[in-house]
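[Automated response] Your request has been received and processed.

Submitted sequence:
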Amino acid sequence: MTAISRVTKRHPSGMVDYQVCIYLGFLGDKKVLRVSCKTDELIPRRWRLSAVKNGSFWELCLHRIKPGTALFFRLELDDGRSIPFVPLGESDVVNGVVRVPDYHPNWLQPQASKNEPGGKQPNAGMAILLEQTLEGLLADYEQGVYFTDAIEELLSWSVADRILQTQIPEMVRDLGYTEIMFPLYASVADRCNLDPKFNYLVYNLSPDWQLGTANDLRSLVHRFRKCGIELVPDLVFVHQVRNPYQGSSDDVSMHIEEISPLEDPDPFLFRDYGTWHFNLGDPIVREIIADKILETILVLDFQVLRVDYIDGLLMQSANRATNHGALLLHELRQRLKRDCPGVRIIGEAFQTAGDPAVVALIDSIYAPRGFGLLDLLLNSVEDRVLATSNTVDGLTQLVADFNNQSHTESNYSQLHDECWCDHWISRGRPHTPWAYGAMPMGLALKRIDSLIDHGWIEPGQHIETAVALTILIRTLGLALSFSRWMETSGCLSLDQGGLDDPLHWQFPWSPTEVHSRRLFPAAGVNEDRRRALITGARAHVAAANHLFRRLGRSELSPFGVPLRMVHGDVQSGLTAFVRWGRDNPNPALVLVNLSPVKAAEQPGYEIDLSSAGWKQEDNPACLKAHTPPLLAETEPPMVLTQSRQSAGRYQLNRPLHGYESILFEVPLHGR
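Generated structure:
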């Protein structure tokens, strides 16, 4: 790395040598006579240290300086003006003040490849990713005793260090998640007052000081990793804000009546009002961005990254002969292959998903598989028989589509950012406009209102049926993924609102407290029932996570495909399919009722599993549900018992409720 400021040596005394690199582009020799720096140390010789011009950069070496020391920079112009500024590329910026970072120089050494001895092996199963801010994990934990509403307190006790004092990593592990994606970069957000809109208005391409120092964040990454969870930073470099603080890079350009050398003067498309795009036509700016991303990876030891809004990155240069966004992606990939080849990239790409530069960089691209489920289960059809038939046929087609996938995807449904009522999202993905602006529980409630109007169910079943439908959509989305499933915490909380609601980004640790009553205002349901529904949904989600995280795309299936429809009753809506896994000999059996009413009134209703794919001698005599029944706490758990007439037919011990979903793990130990 050549374009960023960095620690070059750590002395036994704790002092460090620190090299500062400052890029001013075309402003360099024209107007700037000197780039000077002073520190907050009361030592005269440190009052004015002048940087030396070296090619495109001004360079300054600070020897034996204490980590955390504040640095103050000025541009001295030929007209006598002296302008304070904060250069891009510093490692720690706290409220607009540059500080010498506190990390070891050996952190910036290239990482071992995942194929080399000592390299980290990738997860053999499927990743279950939770999109959640770090501060959101703290807000409701133990009634908020580790949280703070005063941003000044984060200077002495950061978000990362607060989490390290809790059992949050272990509790997330118990819920079955394997990844947490969170906004990392310094932003205009106040991390004590959660509003996701501001987390993505970033500056400086450095970790947010509110989250913690490099030591804090690296320790947090390793703590979660011990629990089998990877922290996935959400890397944003197309939403740079104007004037995040006095003296910032774009603020300096205003003082000298020129645009910043870092800013694109004529981008084809803006994403957010009040932001600017990097001047990617400048190879040095691209180098600085790549260096900052590599520094983030190597300093904090990340294994998985998410790159935000690739569409905007490429469309920025849509009016030019050379697409500099694509060039940045290519150069970044080359750097990753050289310095950290084991790192995997999740990319948010929709309109540009097929671009060669995107395909070359991204290991796993977003795939809105859940939209098909939304259309299948939430669109109104007045005739119940026709609706059930269409739903069964639609699920059969989704299973076929799943088996035909040829590339790795990170699947999500309306459980991801589609719950944010954002006109850019709805314009970019217009095929399901009614799904934007509401969490899954809110969408399900609208669907149930329609069912009541058509007389399919009684009004007294309103909330319970909506909860079951929410979990059904989530279960099917999870079952129709083989690489990664992505979601927010809306399913755990049964949140009926949207992303803009004040409590949405607070993780619901207390399902029986006031916090959850505000997230899940179940009108007409008493307090005990409300608690039971939330607790049941939470248990269902956790059990499904633990089962499917062990299942990825498989070559072990006797059919050569990972999914096999084994039962589909277009009359009752009862369907079943087998889900095979990677490195796991036991398949999952997914049994769902796609109808809002009971699948069958008679307890002896049978399903035919003769085409399930296991040998007759391996057929288990009895299958017990892997997930707890959500809506029937007083009834016995679901059990499938082998029929006496046929080894391939199984009887249900009770009918499935409307929209109920049950998972089984079939014990075929001999495979």
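Summary generated for your ticket: Residues 602 and 655 are 7 Å apart (CA to CA). The longest helix spans residues 527-548.
If you did not submit this request, please reply to this message.
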